[in-house]
Amino acid sequence: LSNAPDLTKRKSSTRRDPLHNALQQILGVTLTESHACPTFVYVATDSDTINSDNLSEVLYLRLLVDDPTYSSALEYLFAVHQRVRTESSGLNDADRLVVQSVQEQCINYSVTCLLEPEMFPSKVTPLEAFDALVRSPNASTSSYLEALAAGLEAQGGNAAVGRVGGPILQKLVSEVFLGSQSILAVESWSSPIQTIGSLVRIKGFATVFTNIPGFLLTPPLNGRRLQDATALGILLRFSTDAPDPAIKDLFANITKRSSRVDVNKSVESLRSKLSLLHNIVTDIFRSLLKGGAHSKTRTIQWLEQAMVVNVEGSKENPNPALVSTAGMLINLNVVLLRLCGPFLPPSTKHALIDATFWKCCSSPLFPQDTTKLVAPSSSSEQQQPAPPSAALASFNFITQCFFLTLRAVHIGPVATIGKYMRLLRQLSYMQNHMDDDPRGRAQFEMLAATKMIIDAKLLQPELLHDLVRFALLSANVTCRLCLSPNGNAVALAGLDLLPLVTPADALLVPSVPEHVVEDILSIVLFVARFAPDELKSFEFGDFLTMALIFLSSPQLIRSPHLRAKMSECLFEMCLPSHESEDRPTAAIPSAVAALVQSKLAQQHLAPCLLALYGDVEQTGFYEKLEHRWESQSPQWLSLDEAVREQKQSLLAEKERTVTSSLQLANETIHMMSYLTSEIQAPFLTAELEDRLVGMLNSVLVKLAGPRGLDLKVR
């Protein structure tokens, strides 16, 4: 009884001690055994209050208690780390410092817990607890993980961070690899990829991720293995071209649907899932590039590998066993274009792009056997010493990013555009010749579904917008190559002298692949035809300048095909729609304004196009007919309507004659096949032998001789 007053005084003093109360709530402990409950675990100490002097001891004793509320000591430490935020309000500055020191102690004990698993009792291993913690993030997880990574590095260097982060990162990548490859299975791939993203935002774990086995590709080196055997390739491979019947089912019986609304919904559904993937993976790449020098270097190395091993992707019919899928390459392009975002707008950091890359870089990014804009003269090759070789890593990041994207665009979107255009021609042909044959209709349905699947990934508005921005930047850099010996930034607005008289050998032009200019034209032409609204927000001054330079200075570009394609772009973007009734043009207002206001265009465009009218005759049979049509379209529209109808009637009659002649030719060939299948002796007699041999030789000369390139197959 004599001790009762003292106990009352002690309880009241404790109740009035805000620091003790805050620490008790944070640690979830009580120093009074009678107050123990599931929320507060009893810890026996000599003191009756928690303060700065015994705080570390109380926390240590609490960690030794086997508490059923938490599955591991790490889970408890994270909970304590979180509660510091909520319980530190209302304290004076001195008490707040004591409370905040709890977080530091939690990190120290967490490091000990992870590096010395036997130190504290636990129902699961610390790495299992860490796995569960990173998979269920909240507002406090990021700051805790960042402090934990710093603590691990301070305790045991990068090896300690790798010992903790490496297994979970490898496990997450394995889950993505072993899960469904379909873009529709969002619940399968999104969670582990997001977890990887949350981890690599922390520099220490970014370094660990770039060091895990399989981050860089090992032999055999090809695009398919890059996609299936490297961590970043596995994250990027989800797209609409996965072998998933559910994707094709979205567009089943597409020609029988009465409304296009449900088709558009299916396309938008695919695009929304692709957009989610793009956002997560782009965040991962940004984190890796910001994760320190080592992480950045390894990521750039992977990007360079991705370009080099996918050289097969530039072919019209690539070997699918050697190249990454078109969807994976488009996903990679989305990432690279977003990384280029800060220097894509005009008047930003264009000048930092080092164009001497073409001559100095020893990287195999652009194959040596690639056709160049113009071949260097033999005299210049003998006179000029070889420039010093430089690796891709020796250039600034903007230059690295620009040239990586330049190559990626060629093997990704531009290659897919070519495939898409061939598919459209095939669909058009089948539609014009389709009858009641169920097999033909089924094939048409399959091709139409394939077309919609490609639409979902290729015609994404954001992708098209970024592609045009990059194409216009590439046009600016290309102009610099023609105006400055080292490709330095120049004021294109002040250009007033055409044609250029500088020899190509005095510039970087002989080192530039031809496909660079062709890709610019292909992108602009494709978007002008299929999504012209995406072009309306752009200025086309640099693009027009590039076209005028090459059209007026043919010594800088040897291919008449490319110069003809430039006129095709001008036709699509600048010709008013009413001037071409058969195929309406885009008539982009900003492009028309740039053309009308350009003094260079007023002086040089007409004579350049007149010279080009003759040059296009050197292109292929079908190409020159297309270019003739574009050149003569305004002249055709100026004819009297009666004259046009007469010419169209004559054309239709000739088409019927050709159709009949081809049918007769087919029947003749069929008859020859029938006659010679069983009766061969008469054709081997001396009288017919020479004639038959002569006929076959004549056919072979036409197929494989010097005029073999004139043969085209639709």
UniProtKB/TrEMBL annotation:
Question: Which molecular function term from Gene Ontology is one that the record holds?
Answer: ubiquitin-ubiquitin ligase activity
Signal peptide residue numbers: none
On the tree of life, the source organism's domain of life is: Eukaryota
Q: For this entry, list what GO says about its biological process.
A: ERAD pathway; protein polyubiquitination; ubiquitin-dependent protein catabolic process
Q: Which InterPro entries match?
A: Ub_conjug_fac_E4_core, UBE4
Pathway, per record: Protein modification; protein ubiquitination
Q: Which ranges carry the Ubiquitin conjugation factor E4 core domain?
A: 232-630, 633-714
GO annotation, cellular component aspect: cytoplasm; nucleus; ubiquitin ligase complex
This protein's UniProt keywords = Nucleus, Transferase, Ubl conjugation pathway
A Pfam family that this protein carries is Ufd2P_core
Where is this gene product found? Nucleus
Name used for this protein in its record = Ubiquitin conjugation factor E4 core domain-containing protein
To which species is this protein native?
Aphanomyces astaci (Crayfish plague agent)
